[in-house]
Every structure is written in C-alpha cells, then in structure tokens.
Amino acid sequence: MEEKLNLTDKWDKTFEKSDKVNHRKITFHNRYGITLAADLYEPKDATGKLPAIAVSGPFGAVKEQCSGLYAMNLAERGFLTIAFDPSFTGESGGSPRYVASPDINTEDFQAAVDFLITQDNVDGDKIGILGICGWGGFALNAAAIDTRIKATVACTMYDMSRVTAQGYFDSLDKEGRYQLREELNAQRTEDYKNGQYQRAGGVVDPLPDDAPFFVKDYYEYYKVRAYHERSLNSNEGWNTTSSLSLLNMPILTYIDEIKNAVLLVHGEKAHSCYFSKDAYEKLEGDNKELMLIPDAVHTDLYDQMDVIPFDKIEEFYKENF
Question: Which of 75, 91, 97, 318 suits a disulfide with 21, CB 3.0-4.6 Å?
Fold first, then answer.
C-alpha cells in the first residue's frame, strides 16, 4: 500500500542528535493512500512495550525542525516517538505538492496512531499526540475524532481554520472573506491555465523594518537559527490556493466532546495566545489544562530548551496514560 519514498540517510536536523536515543527513518500510510515519512526515536536499551507519542508541526515546517526536537527529547524520557512530515510536504508523499487540508492533515495524525498502535514494542493503551503551532489545532481535531488517543498536547497552538477565515484577532469580516475567496478562485483559474500552482512565499524575506514583532520572530526561527531546505516556511511556502478549504471548514467544532486528557501550552506574550485560551474555554471535563509560560513568545516554544516545559509534558503523559 505504500509508495517508496526517497529518504535521506544523513542527519540533517536543525538540532544535535542525542546519545540517549536510537533513531531511524520509517514510513506509514494514511487512509487516502498517501505515504508519510517520519523519524522514529526510542530510548536506548528500552525493553518491553513503551508508551508512544506522534509529533508534528508547526504549519509549514518539517520534522527536521522543532517537531523532531520534541520527539527526541520525549524519547530521552522513556517514550517511543515519531516526528512526521504531513502529506504533500517534506519527505512525505502526496501530489500535488505543498497543499494543506483540514481533513487530510487531521487524518495524518490518525495514521500516525495506526502505525504506533500496531508496533510490537508499543503499548496500544498508552498513545498520545503532540501538535505544535498549526498542528496543535489539528491535534485537537484528531483527538475529537480518535478515541485511541489517550492524551493530547498542543503547544503554541494556532487554529488554522479560524485565522484563515477570520484573520488575526478575528479582524476579517464577511466582505473581507468574500474578497479573499475572489482572489483565491481567480488564482485557481490561472493555475489551471498555467498547468502549475503558484507558491505563496514562506516567511517574508527580506524582512521589512516595520514588520510586526511576530513576523520578525518567525524570520529569526525559519530563516536563521532553524533554516531547512525542505521547510515551506523557510523557502517558497504553500501553494497560494492551499488555504481555500480552511476558509469554510472549521477544525475545532467538536473539541468539547474530547473525553481524554488535553494540555494546552502557550507563551503568555505570544500573539497567538488567544487561540489556546479560547480552545481551553470550549474544552469540557476536569482533565483539561492550560499552561501559560510567563514572558514567552510564540517561537520560544519551538526550540528554546529553557522555555519548553518538558518536565510538565512528561508528567502529563505519564499521568494520563
């Protein structure tokens, strides 16, 4: 069922390899027949069945960036982990390239659970997921549909459907959405005529002097300290029309029905913090938690080891498994 992918055999991560874990490349397939590429990390000398966690994000990033950093560090703490590239991006399969989908990207998390739950060295009753940035939203959406997921962590979370349809801080009104639809559908026509998809561009480069702080924040991460040749945000970005389905398919509709545990982690000073605060208000039950990190901004939770609360995340998974 799986496509043979061309996977690099070199360590090309934006972080150093830990000597406490074993690492190997793996592939798995989703329900749409797309083959996904992932890095698998496991504690050295591990025996028996392990609790497992699938990690992905941020939106437009690759597994060689912060999702791999999270996965490797959680493996140091006793979990078997995978960090995967979403469909149509990175080393994963899927054509056309550079397309996002609220349905397929939610399915990617479920497919990762399919893989983990069928491994001989994984405890199928102890599986969690962790989504970063836009993939925090997809993680919550996956937890709302997949009861096999026992614990979900969303770090520095974006609701990609909300920010696409309503703009930052819900500033886009109906007329603004209509104008956006006109522009994107006109681009569809041009793409079809040209036989190729226009790319939207990744993080703005060169960086304008008057760029908002969070844009400078993204630039510093994707263009400087964590640049990667396969990262959409580091390079030419998504297809321009990729965001069309996010305009009218909200992903967090049923998160109030999640019965298993959820931990939302966000920087207190992040421009995106309102996404986690609002999601927390919608979640129900006594096993939901919002952790705000004082003075932290959005990308601090990408790779700043003194900011990411790994002790808390480890405790959360172990308690709820």
Answer: 75
Hey, what are 317's tokens?
């998974």
Q: Directed axis angle between helix 102-117 and helix 134-145, to 10°?
A: 70
Q: Which residue has the tokens 């309503």?
A: 166
pTM for this prediction: 0.97
Query: Per residue in 116-170, pLDDT tens?
Result: 999 999 999 999 999 999 999 999 999 999 999 999 999 999 999 999 999 999 9
CA distance readout (Å), 199 to 97, 120, 237, 277:
10, 41, 6, 32
In DSSP terms, 84 is beta-bridged to: 38
Distances (CA, A) of 62 to 5, 177, 180, 232, 307: 16, 29, 27, 8, 21
Average pLDDT, the chain: 97
pLDDT at 1: 73
Q: What residues contact residue 19 under an 8 Å CB cut-off, 6+ apart?
A: none
Per 3-state DSSP, the chain is made up of helix, strand and coil in percentages (nearest 5) of 35, 20, 45
pLDDT in tens, 209-229: 899 999 999 999 999 999 999
CB atoms within 10 A of CB 244: 20
CA 106, 111, 112, 113 dihedral sign is positive
Joined together, the tokens standing for residue 204 give 């703005």
Calculate mean pLDDT across residues 264-273: 98
pLDDT of res. 95? 96
> Within a 10 A sphere around the Cβ of 83, how many other Cβ atoms?
31
Burial 166-179 (b: 16+ CB within 10 A, else e): beeeeebeeeebee
The helix/strand count (H/E) of the chain reads as 9, 8
